Amino acid sequence: MQANILSAFASKTARSFLAASLAVAVSTTTTVTAFAQANLPIVRDAEIEALVRDYARPIFRAAGISKSGIDIILINDKRFNAFVAGRRMFINTGALMQSETPNEIIGVIAHEAGHIAGGHQERLREQLARAQTMAIVAGLLGAGAIVAGAATKSGELAQAGGGIAMGGGEMARRGLLSYQRTEENTADRSAVTYLEATNQSTKGMLTTFERFQSALSLSGARVDPYQISHPMPQDRIANLEELARKSPYFDKKDSPTLQLRHDMMRAKIAAFTDGQGATSRMFRKDPKGLAAQYGDTLNTFLYGNLGSASSKVESLIKQQPKNPYFQELRGDILMKSNQPAKAAEAYAKAVQLDPVKSGILPISYGQALIAVGTPDSLKKAIVQIRNGLDRDRENAVGYRYLAQAYGQLGEIPEAELATAEGNFYGGKYQDAKIFAARAQTKFKPGTPGWVRAQDIINFRTPKK
């Protein structure tokens, strides 16, 4: 589901059409720092990111893009949506929470992988260029007719010129939307191929489209299928159902282990985004299951008594002693309880247990060590945070903690450079340049710190 650009073409004039088209073309190559500058609500969570990567890995292999460096970025948005931009796949937390089974969200990932593998964005840019040309030509012809009408004092000719300009832009817009609908159907079919190649069910895709169709029916909205960039849900179901049901894996269910991880992910998102009663509503059919217990513990941590939350997380750890994210939650509870030394122990355990070596957990460990505040703990914090940043280079928050640790140790040049890095990856380029310039004056020319500061100073801020 590539980003819906229908709203970009609200105006039918050639000039506005050109400007909107250019905006879409630029957005497909935006860097993550520019997304931060635009205040895109990006979500970072080690547990959720690990699960989504596990979902995507076999799909990416089947699509032939596993070595293309595809990043998956989570967006804090309750709507069911996902889209691709360049080599990045964006998935809303709403899509993760509303998908009741792993297979449903895996189908979404497979669809987006179809866009990437099919080179749809590159061809979209070509279509945009073609549409812009059509709009410009129509605008010039219309302008010429208007001028001629004015010169001959012919009102009808001038009106016709306006109609040519408007009509040319409309034709270009409809042509572009038609092209997008075709690419959406192609991505759907590619997704079926990837799911079958990885021995996974195609049922989740149909479930997703049925959800869209139900929501559309309940809304009572009347939609012109020729005025949108995606096929209508009932059309997608009709196009896919026969093909999907032919798959030998159509009725295959997700493993209980994967389903549990999915449910715990949903519990976490619900607890943080939907308030206190969300997890109990979500798991009312299994109120004593581990996912429901996890949701209850998170709710108690966020809204209740920290002592009770601590007891509940210990119960979770007894049930899954090798779960790094239960240890992470234990660290969060202890930090909120102003027990940083014990929190550091919990985070250290989480780092040790983490099978995917997320960069987020060492940064949390480092944050706790900073709160301990001794020279030894600060030095350890720097090591841990740097370990995290080696794995997660664009983590702006990590650089801010690194700056704090260096600052408390009195290592000012390193603190200023880390602050520059944090601002840079947070999209605050001017602040980054200011701190980089301050840091550079304190480094010996040619040293790694001096060179990195120069890189930031020389960085050309992307145009908005």
Automatic annotation (TrEMBL):
GO terms for biological process: proteolysis involved in protein catabolic process. It comes from the Bacteria. One of its GO terms (molecular function) is metalloendopeptidase activity. Residues 45-243 form the Peptidase M48 domain. Residues 1-25 form the signal peptide. SUPFAM superfamilies: TPR-like (SSF48452). Keywords: Hydrolase, Metal-binding, Metalloprotease, Protease, Signal, Zinc. Its cofactor is Zn(2+). Gene3D superfamilies: Metalloproteases ('zincins'), catalytic domain (3.30.2010.10), Tetratricopeptide repeat domain (1.25.40.10). The keyword Calcium does not apply. InterPro entries: Mito/Outer_Membr_Metalloprot, Peptidase_M48, TPR-like_helical_dom_sf. GO terms for cellular component: membrane. This is M48 family metallopeptidase. It comes from Mesorhizobium zhangyense.
